[in-house]
Amino acid sequence: MPINALIARNKPELIRALKRPTLDYGNWGITRTIVPKTHFTMVNVYGKISHMNTYVNPTPIDEIAALLSANGSFEKKDDHYLFMMDGSTPIRFDYSDDEGTALLHTIDFTVDDERPIAVRERAARFVDLLIELDGLDLIFKRNPYFQEEVDALWRSCFVDDGIDLPTVSLKDALTSYDGDILIFAEPVHGHDDIYRTLVRTLRTGRYDWLALEMLPALFQPIIDDYFNASEDDDRCLANNAGLRMLRSYLECWDRMFEPPLNAKRPFFKLIQLCKQRGIRVAAINGEPHYTRTWVGHLQVWPFLMGAFNMIWARNIPAAGRGVLVGGKAHFAHHPGLRVQDFLRERFPNRRMGFLDLGWVV
């Protein structure tokens, strides 16, 4: 049976089994279960779930108190609120002040007992209570790619092979490559010579688009507006807060380069180069808080890598010859769940090849 039909037949049962979010306990040294989940309910190494990690919503404390007050006391202390779950289990809610409104910032499960086993039990009971009260959305952020994770999990169970792609020499990439997608599978991010090779490739005029792992898809409208603007770059930056935010976001990737390149905003300069040469830029990655949440688990858990790769493949331009840039792991780990495997499903007739980066030390 084709894999898509297999997934379609079994997905309802799998989704029903996964409706209860599974807690992830950071580096507590506790056995973790990581499966697709509807909401982000991670407890960090300090026994907390924090808005700083974008796992909780900045919900007004008054709304949380109204939800929980029938299941324990909810009292304001000097600088926090304390919820006594079932009248005996303390959970601390720290908050930030927004023009007089107390907004949830951090949930602390370590009050009176910092033992990991106690934190685990307390956090799990709290999540169970929220499920019972239909209150998960009030506090925890939803996983925007739950369906992709479910699909990738099924594929990891039934698919163990993928397509093979040819290697393209740099000479051919610069002069004669007539495939549709040239892949820069970076063995390391922030390699100066790979960056210069990418710039050199784009300057040939042989490629219509550039797809970057470094750009979450939510930045696509900002990039498109920038490309359509007739103003010069200085005026665009002055008048467009979104473009300034994009440039600042890319600095986290810029820092991977060695000096002096890392101080020259190399990735934003790449976008500027593409605008000058009429090369479309495609933002292909998932939402930033999703990538931060799962990045440490990608190579270990096939369905997570598969979900990321599915997202990338979905955002690749459907026409023209282009260059795809991303970390090598996305093209090497878990056959059947790699970027090229999903691209082949989406574009059965498009030709792809890996640029030979064997010279990278």
Describe the structure in your own words.
- With 361 residues, this protein is of the alpha/beta class.
- It folds into 2 domains: 3-143, no CATH class; 167-355, Rossmann fold (3-Layer(aba) Sandwich).
- Helix content is 41%, strand content 17%.
- The chain contains 15 helices and 11 strands.
- It has helices at 3-17, 61-68, 116-132, 136-139, 146-158, 170-175, 192-202, 220-228, 233-239, 241-254, 266-277, 288-294, 302-314, 329-332, 339-346, and strands at residues 48-50, 72-76, 81-85, 89-98, 101-108, 167-168, 181-186, 209-216, 280-285, 322-327, 352-355.
- A hairpin with a 2-residue loop joins β4 (89-98) and β5.
- The longest helix is centred in the middle third of the chain and has 17 residues, at 116-132.
Question: In brief, what are we looking at here?
Answer:
This protein has 361 residues and is α/β, with parallel strands linked by helices. Helix content is 41%, strand content 17%. The longest helix has 17 residues.
